[in-house]
Specification:
Blueprint: E1 15-16, H1 23-26, E2 31-32, E3 36-41, H2 47-61, E4 66-70, H3 75-83, H4 89-94, E5 98-102, H5 118-132, E6 136-140, H6 152-168, E7 172-178, E8 198-207, E9 210-220, E10 229-235, E11 238-241, E12 257-258, H7 263-268, E13 273-274, E14 278-283, H8 289-302, E15 307-311, H9 316-325, H10 330-336, E16 339-343, H11 351-365, E17 369-373, H12 375-379, H13 384-400, E18 404-410, H14 420-425, E19 431-440, E20 443-453, E21 463-468, E22 471-477, E23 481-482, E24 490-491, H15 494-503
Parallel strand pairs: 3-7, 3-8, 4-5, 4-6, 6-7, 14-18, 14-19, 15-16, 15-17, 17-18
Antiparallel strand pairs: 1-2, 8-9, 9-10, 10-11, 12-13, 19-20, 20-21, 21-22, 23-24
Helix pairs in contact: 11-13
């Protein structure tokens, strides 16, 4: 993800890095140090994990010891739950870097009555902080503290006492709280946000048939942060935030050209694709989009460049078989170690998980070229906003890594028209090649044109092409034909057209 330069804040409010991937971008550095931050969310939104990762990263990345206060799960359960992430909390506890304050109820205390001894609780927390010299404290969850109380004034008073006590000793505190709805009251009792200096909301919204997690910084008292919701996912390494709209355009631009795998198409684009550009191939089914994707990869591998193909509509064996029909041996490139192919249904994961999978593969393999075939397959399972966010993050990451990218998209109709995909991402790509069927004289033919080539001149004609055993063969321009792009091709009398032009 793109790095962001942060403006210098007021020296009286320093920020503490959480270590959670992507959070520093939306928080413009981290959470205010020495203050209380409320993390509120519905069940399954990731509150507890967020608070634990805050401590774990503090211990391992910033040499800041921590205290975890639990009112619901026992320390044993908490340790078991995060073992799958590789976080050994018990080892940190034995090394004196982490302390637990276990305030979880026993079976006999499941339905508490009477007053709770908040003074004793605060004393236990302060003792644990002193014992391990903690700089960070996580409290999970304050909602469990007040199930028997109905006086919001009392709840507010006791919460203030807890946060004030922790602030007085200079620790950075994170408190989690439950909320009943994804969009509504910030927290269950309606007062938690007022006694906290900062408020972070985690959501787990059902979109269609899939859940989508987002994070929003609602309030950072006295300091700046990014506004709005940002998607995140929970991976095998913990929470990963995708700060899409918070990214800056800092990628470099290359003047070096690379071949698309076809001499004639290279000529039409003015000499090939720029080294760090992304090209969109748009057209109806059967026009050769995957053929262009395959020859693009073949050209790279033949030049000893690493390539990755992400396919969402065809299996690996299908791609290999089809490539052989136009003279491309993908299996040879895979055996050489220059090519990797990943085939998955779009429905198999959330958009954030797809994006992180792509990024992880690019980070590990470090390819020179990447193809996505096709974006339209991803589009059909995402909302308009989710799809655009997916494409923005994907294109920005590929550009940041200076990888040449080729995306394909499918139009809705066989003859003309534009795809919704093309509409949403045309401004994000550097070049657009449009493929069309042309119906003429009772025969179905194909046409290709370059409608965009950022930073370069290109041909404007619509040329005929055929797909043979040698791939795509470019023919002469269509002359005396108009309406190809709209799907209403018709022959034009050139002499008559010239006469009408003179009439003005």
């Amino acid at each position: 993800m793109a790095k962001r330069k942060f403006k210098k804040e007021d020296s009286t409010i320093q920020k503490s890095l959480t270590g959670i991937e992507g959070f520093s971008v939306i928080a413009e550095g981290g959470i205010p140090m020495g203050r209380a931050t409320l993390v509120s969310g519905t069940s399954g939104s990731g509150k507890t994990l967020f608070s634990i990762e805050f401590l774990w990263c503090g211990i391992n990345s910033f040499k800041e010891n921590g205290v975890f206060v639990t009112f619901e799960e026992t320390p044993n359960d908490i340790c078991k739950n995060v073992n799958s992430l590789g976080w050994d909390l018990r080892a940190a506890e034995k090394e004196g870097k982490l302390a637990f304050v276990d305030a979880s109820p026993t079976p006999e205390e499941q339905n508490p009555t009477g007053k709770y001894d908040f003074g004793a609780l605060i004393a236990r927390i302060l003792h644990a902080v002193k014992k391990v010299k903690a700089k960070r404290v996580s409290v999970d969850s304050i909602t469990a503290l007040f199930p028997q109380y109905h006086d919001t004034g009392l709840i507010r008073k006791e919460l203030f006492n807890i946060t004030a006590s922790l602030k007085s000793i200079g620790v950075t505190t994170m408190l989690t709280s439950e909320r009943l709805q994804e969009y509504g009251e910030v927290a269950r009792f309606g007062v938690e946000e007022f006694v906290s200096d900062n408020v972070i909301i985690l959501r787990n919204v059902l979109e269609g048939e899939k859940r989508r997690r987002t994070i929003e910084i609602l309030k950072f008292r006295g300091t700046m942060h990014q506004k709005g919701e940002f998607p995140f996912t929970i991976s095998k390494d913990g929470i990963k935030i995708l700060p899409l709209s918070g990214l800056e355009l800092i990628q470099r631009s290359s003047t070096k050209r690379i071949s698309l795998g076809n001499v004639d198409i290279d000529r039409m684009t003015g000499g090939g694709l720029f080294r760090d550009s992304i090209i969109l191939i748009s057209g109806p089914t059967g026009t050769g989009k995957t053929t262009m994707s395959t020859t693009f990869v073949d050209s790279g591998c033949n030049n000893k460049e690493k390539c990755i193909m992400f396919a969402y509509e065809e299996s690996k064996d299908q791609l290999v078989r089809n490539g052989l029909s136009w003279g491309v041996d993908l299996r040879k490139h895979m055996k050489s170690g220059l090519l990797r192919i990943f085939c998955r249904y779009p429905e198999s994961m959330s958009p954030e998980e797809h994006l992180l999978f792509i990024k992880d593969q690019l980070e590990e393999f470090k390819p020179n070229r990447v193809t996505i075939d096709s974006l339209s397959a991803m589009e059909r399972v995402l909302s308009v906003n989710s799809f655009r966010e997916f494409v923005i993050s994907l294109t920005s990451y590929i550009k940041l890594k200076e990888i040449a990218g080729l995306f394909t998209s499918t139009t809705k109709t066989l003859l003309g028209g534009e795809s919704i995909t093309e509409t949403h991402i045309s401004t994000l790509t550097d070049a657009i090649v449009v493929l069309r069927y042309v119906e003429m004289h009772g025969e179905m033919r194909r046409g290709i044109t370059i409608i965009k080539m950022r930073g370069s001149n290109h041909e404007k004609e619509i040329r005929e092409y055929v797909i043979s055993k040698n791939g795509i063969n470019i023919k002469n321009p269509f002359v005396g034909v108009e309406g190809i792009m709209t799907g209403m091709a018709r022959s034009v009398n050139l002499a008559e057209e010239e006469y009408l032009k003179r009439l003005g």
